[in-house]
Every structure is written in C-alpha cells, then in structure tokens.
Amino acid sequence: MPRKYSDEIFEQKFWEKVDKTSDASGCWLWTGYKHRQGYGYVSWNYKMTLTHIVAYLLMGNTILDGFDLAHSGNCKGKPHCCNPEHLTPKTRRENCLDRHRDQTFIQAKLNSEQVLEIRRRLALGETHKDIAKEFGVCRATISMISSGKNWNHL
C-alpha cells in the first residue's frame, strides 16, 4: 500500500497541527484528533500513534525498547502536549507510578466486578504482572488495589 504523503509532507502537515504559542507553561498543544482521554493521535507508518511520540521522534530523539514517554509536571491535564522538552523516557513502571502519584491515571478503566475478580486472583497467588496484562492496566494499578490504596470501599 503506497503512502499517502512523503515523509517531508507528513512532517509539514504534522507540525501545522501543533500550537507552540498559546500555552503559558510552554506546552505545544496538538490541535488535531484527540482520543477521549485527551491524547493526540495521528496515522504514522501505517498505524495510529500518539502525537507526543511522533513529535519526540521527529525532533531526532530515540526511545529505547521497554520505555514510554512520560509528560512533565508542566503538562498536567494536557496529555496532548507535544513539546519534546516536556517528555522523558521512563520505564512503564516509572510512568505508571508517576501517573498514580500525580493522579493523572484513568480510574474508571476498571469496574467493581473486575476489582473483586482481581482481588480473588491475588488471593489465589496470581502475579500482578499477569493480572495487569489481562485487564489492560499497569502493575501499579494492581498493586494499589492489592494494598487498599485504590478501591478500598469494596
């Protein structure tokens, strides 16, 4: 399947959708399509990719295998920030712990029944890693449920 645009045209069109001037904290805000969680997405190399990742890579940076890009504190409430200076490569665990600390994680990803099932499996000795993978959450979420820091009302 041929590409719709050359790399140069893609990059030009991409940066046209980034507002580098309107945010007082220096965030470069994606003005194109955003997912319901607020993250920008764009079709890049035949797949939907988070715009902050695209921006980081287009600026000549690399992301090692096993690392995510974490937004800085400047970006709280602005997951569509594309400023590479506001992004830091971190392990998935570090990124999840940061999101829990800053309360920028999506709490509604699990419902009460799922949390009770997670607790049942934890009691049976299943690993946090296996449970997190099955439910599509990070291990820190399972740890918070296990320790009673989240969902302690159940």
3D architecture notes:
With 154 residues, this protein is of the alpha+beta class. The protein folds into two domains: 85 residues, no CATH class; 41 residues, no CATH class. Helix content is 38%, strand content 14%. The chain contains six helices and six strands, in the order H-E-E-E-E-H-E-E-H-H-H-H. The strands form three sheets. It has a two-stranded antiparallel ribbon. A two-stranded antiparallel ribbon has the order 3-4. Helix 5 crosses helix 6. The protein is elongated, with a radius of gyration of 18 Å. The mean pLDDT is 86.
Care to give the gist of this entry?
By secondary structure, the chain is an alpha+beta fold.
Into which percent range does the helicity of residues fall? Answer: 25-40%
Residue share in β-strands: 5-15%
Mean pLDDT: 86
Structure classification: alpha+beta
Instruction: Tell me the count of domains.
Output: 2
Which runs of at least 5 residues are low in confidence (pLDDT < 50)?
Answer: none
Overall form: elongated
By DSSP, the count of extended strands is 6
Structure annotation, total helices: 6
Give the distance, in angstroms, between the N- and C-terminal Cα atoms.
51 Å
Main sheet? 2 strands, antiparallel
- The radius of gyration is 18 Å
Please provide the ordered H/E string of secondary-structure elements.
HEEEEHEEHHHH
Side-by-side strand order of the widest sheet: 1-2
